[in-house]
Write a structure and sequence with these properties.
The protein contains five helices and three strands; from the N terminus they run αααβαββα. It is mainly alpha-helical. The protein folds into two domains: 8-46, no CATH class; 56-159, no CATH class. It is found in: Cell membrane. It is a multi-pass membrane protein.
């Protein structure tokens, strides 16, 4: 039965939302069932590999570090926005060579960088292992490289096998 309905809860939720958005008719029920069935089977291609976590004890350290960095970055970006003087601020791109290759680790790093105000994950080139980020207030590119590698990549390398 799993091959017919690989995600039964998703199927039921999609069908319910379809019927809530449309009038409840036999045609809507049949068409909604078809849409939900196709969507559930499309989801089977997106099943990610299970993460291999090597060190659970470092996860709270990473979470705490990210929370502090996001708070500090919020304050810094607020100061930039509210300041009337430019004072030589400029945005820019920073290329960072990464050793991290684990897909889950890279996804978490992308979430961290994007969630931190003033930075955005732009591109990752898997063949070279190079990450490109955008920084709102770029003073020293090497400082950003060192910060990302030391604050996040080292922990992620230790957390994921």
């Amino acid at each position: 039965m799993k091959w017919l309905f690989p995600y039964p809860v998703l199927f039921a939720a999609l069908l319910l939302f379809w019927l809530l958005l449309n009038d409840f008719t036999i045609g809507a029920l049949i068409f909604g069932s078809i849409v939900a069935f196709v969507a559930c089977h499309a989801m089977t291609a997106l099943v990610p590999q299970k993460p291999r976590i090597r060190s659970y004890r470092l996860i709270p350290v990473l979470v705490w570090r990210v929370a502090l960095d996001i708070l500090q970055s919020n304050i810094a970006v607020t100061k930039i926005i509210l300041s009337r003087h430019d004072r030589g601020r400029r945005a820019g791109f920073v290329a960072i060579p990464l050793q991290l290759t684990d897909r889950m680790g890279l996804a978490i790093l992308a979430c961290i960088i994007t969630a931190t105000p003033g930075t955005a994950w732009v591109d990752y080139h898997a063949a070279s292992g190079e990450l490109l980020i955008h920084v709102l207030d770029l003073k020293d590119a090497q400082e950003w490289r060192d910060s990302i590698k030391q604050r996040y990549e080292e922990l992620l390398l230790e957390i994921f096998a």
